[in-house]
Specification:
By secondary structure, the protein is an alpha/beta fold. The chain folds into two domains: about 130 residues, Aspartate Aminotransferase, domain 1 (Alpha-Beta Complex), CATH 3.90.1150; about 270 residues, Type I PLP-dependent aspartate aminotransferase-like (Major domain) (Aspartate Aminotransferase, domain 2), CATH 3.40.640. Helix content is about 40%, strand content about 15%. A seven-stranded mixed beta sheet has the order 4-12-11-10-7-5-6, sandwiched between helices. A four-stranded mixed beta sheet has the order 1-2-3-15. Helix 4 packs across helix 11 and helix 5 crosses helix 10. The protein is globular and about 65 Å long. It binds pyridoxal-5'-phosphate (PLP). The site of pyridoxal-5'-phosphate has 14 residues, from helix 5.
Length: about 425
């Protein structure tokens, strides 16, 4: 198969995500042939370091022997069975394991992150309805939040380029000031700013709690907003406020779960327990689509009834797919056997040191949380993100800046030489593009 041929057939037959297809008249697609560790290889044999973990899903690199073996083994016994009326070992094992890790339970499955958001929102509303409070039917989220692209998820998302077009279709929700510390006043600490934002949250919730079902939040890092990071104290205050006014707290850990922020889950860093947690992306190590929502016994109990309609009658055809659950079990087994969280701490320290070579460039807000690094480039150049992206690809590095924010979210298996390559190549690209 030839490169050009595959490229043209793709443009004719495939509608690519998050893309103005006309841009591909000037910006070619890259047909990929294989992946190995942090590297992707195209049909001409050129290698690219996957600095964004293939849109934040790949935790342990491509072509991982243990995850592959688990999927193959499951494939020989049971590829799929519907989960209404039936069950199977991988889904039970995974649900037990996730409950043990999160302190929540009753895992409800879907296949992508946006569906997990939908499920959490519906469950929260339905809980209040089952409890005789149907007027608690509105949602809160943060400014610049991202919770997915389906209509319900987009309703609580606050990214104009994704949302504005569809505004007439969306359920209204309110957005609270974001504690993203880039927005702090000069001289204000991240904690002080977070507390100031939390006060605004409290003022709003105090006034509107009678109609509020839930506050949905991306713990510690608003990734799609350009890796906006904030102090954990905001989550502590949000938990207190939600408790005081009887509003659910939904932790959308779709991007930050599974070690990305330096702990297994970001909410652990605030020592809080959410009412719902949404997980996806890294859950299968980037192998198969899977998402889940976990919740409390209390929420679960409100649905447990003789009346059918009080149950959560939501479903997706592939709910709890055994192959995806096996991939997730293999992924979690790697965390257990390889001390991933501990190993990552050393990588974080190493990378923070290496990042200093960027400090004299025209950048600001050089920041880090666990295995995420980001900085904002000071430029008026409108096409910066696209110019940098293309320059980096030419140099064998896959990064995808969000507006002026360049970020690194590599697979955890990245080694010291590969970190060097990533940082040095970034420096060179910035010099060429700016
Ligand atoms: C990616 C993402 C989603 C949506 O997940 P999809 O699988 O793309 O639908 C939701 N929330 C957050 C925080 C995300 O990063």
């Amino acid at each position: 198969m030839n490169n050009q041929d595959l490229l043209n057939r793709s443009l004719a037959a495939v509608w690519h995500p998050c893309t103005q297809m006309k841009h591909h008249e000037t910006m070619p697609l890259i047909p990929m042939q294989r992946g190995d560790g942090v590297w992707l290889t195209d049909f001409e044999g050129k290698r690219y370091l996957d600095g964004v973990s293939s849109w934040w899903v790949n935790l342990f690199g491509h072509n991982h022997p243990r995850i592959k073996a688990a999927i193959k083994q499951q494939l020989d016994t049971l590829e799929h069975v519907m989960l209404a009326g039936f069950t199977h070992a991988p889904v039970v094992d995974l649900s037990e394991k996730l409950a043990q890790l999160t302190g929540l339970g009753h895992a409800f499955y879907a296949s992508d992150g946006a569906s997990a958001t939908e499920i959490a929102l519906k469950m929260s509303f339905h809980y209040w309805r089952n409890m005789g409070q149907p007027s608690k039917n509105k949602f809160l989220s943060l400014q610049n939040s991202y919770h997915g692209e389906t209509l319900g998820a987009l309703g609580v998302t606050d990214v104009a380029i994704f949302k504005d077009t569809y505004a007439p279709l969306l359920t209204q929700s309110a957005q609270m000031p974001s504690p993203d510390f880039r927005l702090a006043e000069v001289g204000e600490s991240a904690d002080a700013f977070a507390l100031r934002c939390a006060q605004r949250l409290e003022d709003y919730v105090a006034e509107h709690h009678a109609e509020l079902a839930a506050f949905i939040i991306e713990p510690l890092v608003q990734c799609a907003a350009g890796m906006g990071m904030y102090a954990a104290v905001y989550l502590q205050r949000a938990r207190e406020i939600c408790d005081r006014y009887q509003v659910h707290l939904i932790a959308d850990e779709i991007a930050v779960g599974f070690g990305r922020t330096g702990r297994m889950f970001a909410f652990e860093q605030a020592n809080i327990q959410p009412d719902f947690i949404c997980l996806s992306k890294g859950i299968t190590g980037g192998y198969l689509p899977l998402s889940t929502v976990l919740t409390t016994d209390r929420v679960y109990a409100a649905f447990y009834d003789d009346v059918t309609a009080k149950g959560f009658l939501h479903s997706h055809s592939y709910t709890g797919n055994p192959l995806a659950c096996s991939a997730a079990l293999a992924t979690l087994a790697i965390f257990d056997s390889d001390d991933v969280i501990g190993q990552n701490q050393a990588k974080t320290a190493l990378m923070n040191h290496k990042m200093q070579v960027l400090a004299d460039l025209p950048i600001q807000h050089l920041r880090n949380q666990g295995m995420i690094w980001a900085f904002d480039v000071k430029t008026e150049q409108r096409g910066f993100a696209s110019a940098f992206y293309q320059q980096a690809l030419q140099q064998g590095l896959l990064l995808r800046p969000i507006a002026n924010t360049v970020y690194f979210m590599p697979p955890y298996v990245i080694n010291a030489a590969e970190l060097d390559f990533m940082v040095e190549t970034t420096r060179r690209c910035l010099e060429l593009v700016l």
